[in-house]
Amino acid sequence: MTLNLETPKEIRASIRRSEWTKSTHGLAPGYVQANLVVLPQKLAFEFLLFCQRNPKPCPLLDVTEVGDPEPKLVAPGADLRTDIPKYRVYEYGELKRETTDIRPFWQSDSVAFLLGCSLTFEAALLQAGIPLRHIEEGKIVPMYITNIPCQPAGLFQGPMVVTMRPIPEKRVVQAIQITARYPKVHGAPIHIGKPGSIGISNLSQPDFGDAIRIKPDEVPLFWACGVTPQAVAQNAKLPLLVSHAPG
């Protein structure tokens, strides 16, 4: 069966019908991809404040009305309970399950936050001829929990998560310039080279995603990542937090 995956609406419909179940990297070039966080209303303001104080890892695109799974501002007609290939459910800081449908966990007081995702700017990097190893290897971009603290807001405090992409040394400046044009999807890298200085001891052991090969002439570049709320949720031991599965 040939899937029609040309527009975001068609992609979401395919996911909802369980026809597309893989990562969304490489899909919908030219459109914004988003990370998801779902919380009860009583925690929504504190998380909104957390996003405002930490715009690099948590660039806010939209917030739903209480109990409404439709992000009317950025994706009218979407259903955030079913339109993402895989979700994660955290209870008291522990990952309890992964699922393709969060309707059983959606409550009348649920509020969803959509945060910009760095998969968005990958099309621009590829168009400029900058190679992306995780795409070449058919893997999920590697993500790491760093020692960089986020600015706290109430219960929400903890370390920043970053994605890593190895870039040829001669293309590093160009990669920085290209991604800096996308501030709503994390923008320019927050760190270049020397992973140990941000608390990453082994690039071959990511906390999320897959390990990828780094060539001798490449430099690891690190971008702030929208998986940060998952690390923060583990820290805060929130009763319930639902998110997208990394990658």
Automatic annotation (TrEMBL):
Q: Which UniProt keywords apply?
A: Lyase
An example of a GO molecular function for this protein is: lyase activity
Gene3D superfamilies documented for this protein:
PSTPO5379-like, PSTPO5379-like domain
**NCBIfam families attached here?**
PRK05463.1
Q: Tell me the protein family, please.
A: Belongs to the D-glutamate cyclase family.
User: Which protein is depicted?
Assistant: Hydro-lyase
